[in-house]
Amino acid sequence: MKNHARRIISFSRDYYPELVKLGRYNYNKAEKSLEEHIHHNRIEICYYDKGSQWFCVGGERYLVKGGEAILHFPGEVHGSGGFPEGKGRLYWLIIDLSEVSSQSNQENGNEIVYLCNELIRRNERHFTGTKEMKQILEEIFCVYRKSARNKLGVIRIRTLTKRFLLLLLDCIQRKHSVVDERLTQVLQYIDKHISTPITISVLADLCCLSESRFKNLFREQTGFTPGDYIQRKRIQRAIQLLKQNPDITVSNVAYQFNFSSPQYLSSVVKKYTGLPPSILKDRKGEFEQITALGFAK
Known about the structure:
It contains twelve helices and ten strands. By secondary structure, it is α+β, with helices and mostly antiparallel strands. It folds into two domains: 6-173, Sandwich (Jelly Rolls); 182-293, Arc Repressor Mutant, subunit A, CATH 1.10.10. The strands form two sheets. Strands 1, 2, 4, 5, 6, 7, 9 and 10 form an eight-stranded antiparallel β-sheet that branches. Strands 3-8 form a two-stranded antiparallel sheet. Helix 2 (111-122) packs parallel to helix 4, helix 3 runs antiparallel to helix 4 (151-173) and helix 9 (250-256) crosses helix 10 (262-273). This is AraC-type DNA-binding protein.
């Protein structure tokens, strides 16, 4: 099944006994929240290509940004914790670990199930992935469309799935978070000048990099493009100002943060959060700070 924003493969159990679904959404605005659900005897692997998304697993929140993966282990209750599915691109793969799937291809052992059990054994839920993960998942979509039930197609898809799982294990093995010092300077500059026009060329100069290399570095380190990050930051600051000053108007906030009009500010806020500023202004709690920017406070 597919539409303009979502595509889902429901694998045939006759050909892929352990593979359940591969999905992808590509939203250009915030959508409704993901309700809590559970996968018995199944593991769900999510890879976020761009943007950010909040997940809630067993009552604990995880912020997943572009280039990161999150695993939902068998039997865990998970969803988006009431937050909308955010603007961005997400892939998810569900694999069945039940006894029937585990015994398929028993003469050689089921390597896909084995690798999934290794992921469970490592017990690392949230970590940085690689660009190759997206490429592999897109290739699975392509092969399935052309030759889902062809013997060579089945072999290719199973091989690609194993490559994807091995990549996840490799990323867990080298899990670390090193923030480039040059980027720290850039983020401080953005914070300080968020109410004024900010150009990519100025940010790149701060890092002594070309614009193309700077954009790549920025996305690798933050999960966002520079423009998307700046927009989210402005939205967060604008909503915070509205909440802190009940008498201030949307028009004043729009022009203070360099939006061309209050109507444009309202449309952008709704695009990222699913709600207009007038509602977020009166909303209690931290919903707007978390959702609008896509970073933990």
